[in-house]
Design brief:
two-stranded antiparallel ribbon, mainly alpha, DUF2795
Length: 124
Amino acid sequence: MTPRPERAVPPPAPEGLRAVLAAVLDDLVFPARRWQVLTAGDLYGVDTTTRRLLELLPERRYGSLAEIAAVVTAVLAGRPVAAVGQAPPPPSPRVAPRRGPSPVAGRPAVRTPGRRPVPSTPVA
């Protein structure tokens, strides 16, 4: 028995690609990393063609579904992926202002017994 030749399925057009990705990545929270996009596709149960398209994504953070579709389209067209915008870095956490009396220049800070000072460097 001869093996059946593998049929090459052409990738969907950019409009169709976005619709397919919208159905697959509907529950994904953005910004998302590449592994999160692939995991969401696996959990959805994507077909082989869509899975291969998602595997083309470079390792980085994606800010929206439109960005993922644009990157896949750029990769399929042979354009550089760097031309497609990246998601901004996540916002840094806000630091609450210090409460209590502020030390006055020339006078040492008064320590309350039983309380330890808050470390100024991160503790591992």
